Structures are given as C-alpha cells and as structure tokens.
Amino acid sequence: MTYDVLGPGALDYLPCRYGASKLLFRGPRRSLDAPYVAFIGGTETYGKFIDKPFPALVEEALGMTCVNFGYPNAGIDAFSHDPFVVGAASGAAVSVIQVMSAQNMTNRFYGVHPRRNDRFVSASTLLKAIYREVDFADFHFNRHMLRRLQMVSPDRFKTVKEELQTAWLARMRLILGQIQRKTVLLWFSARAPEEVDASAGVLGGDPLFVTREMIEEIRPHATEVVEVVASEHACAAGTDGMIYSQMEAMAATEMLGPLAHQEAAKAVADALRPLL
User: Fold this and answer.
1) DSSP structural state of residue 25
2) Tens digits of per-residue pLDDT, 206-255?
3) What DSSP line would sit under 112-152, residue for residue?
4) Which fold does the domain 36-117+165-275 belong to in CATH?
5) 64, CA 20 to 30 Å: which among 55, 136, 159, 228?
C-alpha cells in the first residue's frame, strides 16, 4: 500500500534526513550524540496519520531520546542496504525493529525499488517462465502483482510465497547480524503471527506472509521479541484520532490508530526498561 500526503488537513510529518542516508524520515530530527533508542520499521513505525506514533510515546515514557527511522511501505531492503541506518542502530543503546512484510524485498522472482520497497520493478526470467500467461508490464506495486499471481494459479503461487518467506528469513538474519547492540524485534499488527490461509484468494494482513514459525526461527538473533496485537477496542476505534486529508480517508481506514499505538508503546517501553 502506498499513501501520499495530499491536500489540506494532512498531517505534517516534519520530514528530515540523517547523515548520508537517502531516506526521508519523520521529524522532528533527533540528536544522535546522546544515548538513544533507534526505531526501524515501515508505515506503523513512521506513524502514518498518527500525531504521536509509538516511538514518540516510548520517548515520553522512558525520558530517553528515541530516533524514528521508520519509512512508509518499507521492507527490510530499505534498511539493510542503508549503511547509515545500520550504523546508527549499532550506535544506539537498543534498536527496536518492526517485523515488516515479506513481499517488499528483491528476491529470486522479482525486484523492488531500493527505497520505495512496495514498488514492483521487474520480474525475473524464472517468474516469467512460471507465469507465462501474465504480462508483468501491468504492475507497479508488489501487492497488486502478487494478488494477480495468486488468482491465476494458487498452486504455482505457493512457490512464490515460499521464496518470499525464505528471503525474509535470510534478510532478517542479515540486518540483525549487522547491528552490534541489543535488538528488540517488534510484531505490531491487528493479527497474531499465525499462519494465514490465503487459499481463498486473499493474500492476508500485514506483515504479509510472516508466520509464528518464522518469528521463532529469528528469535535467537534478537535480544528480545515483543508481540503487540491491537486489541478489539483499538481496532473498533477505526480512524478516531487520526489526522488525514479527505483524499487520504480511505487509506486511513486500513491503518492502526492512536489506541493501538498506545498499546504498542506500553509493551515496547516495558521491554526496553531492563535493557537500558
């Protein structure tokens, strides 16, 4: 999913840059001189439509600088290929890494944009051979492409899904291995990390294709794992408290709201205290 800030009423994210990173992060810019906690992740970490996303709430709870390196629609590639972010995470007292979806990564079957990881760039010769009837020029976004592949052939799609899950595990081991300090792996979603049955033509919810088995396989590579599943109360609140323009209203309905961010902040702060 991709959302742009459009029109009056949209939230000002005070975009800023850090060091040599090519990514534009959410501000206000924080100092990297003092002890700090680094937050790496996608749209939820960035806090799309949220005035105070969970990294900002954790900063208030701990009284310690929290640097938001979240990037909308990011996959692991956006950070594993960014030496500055990896270096900043290694300089942090602790780094909190959000579990991101498995589809937004370059893999054996297709390539994605190096920063806008939700953007589909090209299909490999192998994928074109598996799906000869599909014209890959029709796609601009990974999720759209994957949805079509699943509809065309659920059986062949299993091979694609398994490749994405294998690539996700390898990429997570890589980025966790690159960070030289303590790390907290954060599951933050409206669903628990169980296997999702996509046989009915529905891809599933974010983090897409990531299962509990995958989380458990990665667990030894992180200092701590925190699982936050938004409560029914938080999910029922819908877009209450969100800030968005009229053109962003539909996109906002698909996002976790302020109550869910409060739940995540409490869980993360509780996990961080013994590590600081």
Assistant:
1) B
2) 999 999 999 999 999 999 999 999 999 999 999 999 999 999 999 999 99
3) E-SSSTTBEEEE-HHHHHHTTT--GGG-SBHHHHHHHHHHH
4) Rossmann fold (3.40.50)
5) 228
Q: Exposure string (b/e) for 41-73, b if CB count within 10 Å is 16 or more?
A: bbbbbbbbbbeebbbbbbbebbebbbbbbbbbb
Residue ranges per structural domain of the chain: 36-117+165-275
Per-residue confidence (pLDDT) for residue 81, from 0 to 100: 86
Residue 142: which pLDDT band, with cuts at 50, 70 and 90?
very high
For the stretch 31-66, pLDDT in tens is 999 899 999 999 999 999 999 999 999 999 999 999
The rounded distance, in Å, linking the Cα atoms of 259 and 53 is 10
Question: Distance of alpha carbon 163 from its chain centroid, rounded?
Answer: 19
Model confidence pLDDT, tens digit, residues 167-204: 999 999 999 999 999 999 999 999 998 766 554 456 78
Buried b / exposed e over 215-231, threshold 16 CB at 10 Å, is: beebeebbebbbebbbe
Amino acid symbol at 238? G
Structure-block tokens of residue 144? 């759209």
- Could you list the beta-strand ranges (E) of 161-223: 182-189
Element (H, E) at 37: strand 36-41
Q: What's the number of CA atoms in the CB half-sphere (13 Å) around residue 256? A: 30
